[in-house]
Structure formats: C-alpha cells, structure tokens
Amino acid sequence: MTLVFPLRMLNLSLTTNIPNIILGPSYWACSSSSRPHDGVGILLRTPLHKHVQTIDFWNGRLLKLDLFFHQTKISIISLYYPPSGSIHHSISNDLIAKLFSWLDHARANNYHVVILGDFNVDEIAHSNYSPNHFKLLRLLSSRYFTDHQAHFSIEGPDPTFYYTNGSSRLDYI
Q: Which end of the chain is more exposed for a tag (fewer CB within 10 A), N or C?
C-alpha cells in the first residue's frame, strides 16, 4: 500500500502521530508570511522518493511533486486554499491560476494527477456561502477531477475537521 500525506505545517511529532509506517523524505513549501506554521507538505513512503523528478512550489500554498515510473508520470499536488473572505480574494485567484497552469502542463504531457489538501470548503456546512467560495471545487469538477472520499464512501465522506460544536469536511483528495 502506498501512502501519501497532505500536511499543513504544525508543531507535531510525526513519529508519534503517524504510527506504523515507514517515513520517507518529506517535502515542504513554506510560506514567506509572518505566520510561522503556514505552508504545505507531502510525506512519501519509502521508497517512492527515488521516483521524484521535479519539485515545484508556490507561496507556501501549493507543492507539486512529479514522479516517474517507467511509462507512467504522476503529479501529486498538495494545496492550502485560503478560507472564504474578501481579504483572501486575490490569493485565491492567484492560487487557481498557478494550479491550472500546472494542470495544463500535466494534461499536455500525459501525467496522471492527484490533488489533495486543505480546500477550506465544506459543501454542506458552507452551503449558504457565496458561489465564489466554491470556485475551486467547481473548476476542478469541470476538468473531471473526482472527490475520492465521496466517490468511494457508501455512507458519505467523513469529517476532516472537528470543533467544539461539531465537525466539517475541509480536506479533500
């Protein structure tokens, strides 16, 4: 079984919080902002790291690893999409533009693509938000990307974020 983990940069001990796996190299895209924990990361299980050919990142919000396996090319993209709000509008648009430039390159070069991370969107809990809040999910859907957990879950996808009064689903693969 192959394991790929999307991680926001948090103060945690990976060896105690992710038991029973063989940790391989980690790849990080750190933010240049004053917030010390902003960024995204990907951990690959050993020995996948030897297949990494290209590493690209953007503003601590996108990280792309290109892996080559004989005749198969795979891009794994981890993202941290900003929460809804007017102060994040330009960051959101810039992130989408960069992500879709990577996706265009992947399509033109016959890559398989996996996108994962913190999308900061819960289609059920956030159903009263403006349509612009769902822009990224709609654009990915228009390019035939599928929400892996929703697609394969019989009882519906599980929450990925828990808070005092409930839970929501902000993370996707």
A: N
The span from the CA of 10 to the CA of 46, in Å, is: 22
What does the pLDDT average to over 51-72? Answer: 95
pLDDT tens digits for 123-150?
Answer: 655 566 666 667 888 888 888 877 766 6
Predicted structure pTM score: 0.76
Phi and psi at 8, nearest 5°, equal -85, 150
Q: How is the chain split into domains, by residue range? A: 4-172
Residue 35, pLDDT score: 62
Counting every residue written for the chain, the total comes to 173
Residue closest to 172 by CA, chosen among 143, 141, 142: 141
> Which tokens belong to 80?
């941290």
CATH number of 4-172: 3.60.10.10
Distance in angstroms (rounded) separating the CA atoms of residues 121 and 82: 9
Nearest to 63 by CA among 52, 50, 76: 76
Strands of the 111-118 sheet, one edge to the other: 52-58, 62-69, 72-80, 111-118, 171-172
Query: CB atoms < 10 A from the CB of 62, how many?
Result: 22
Distance CA 7, CA 26 (A): 10
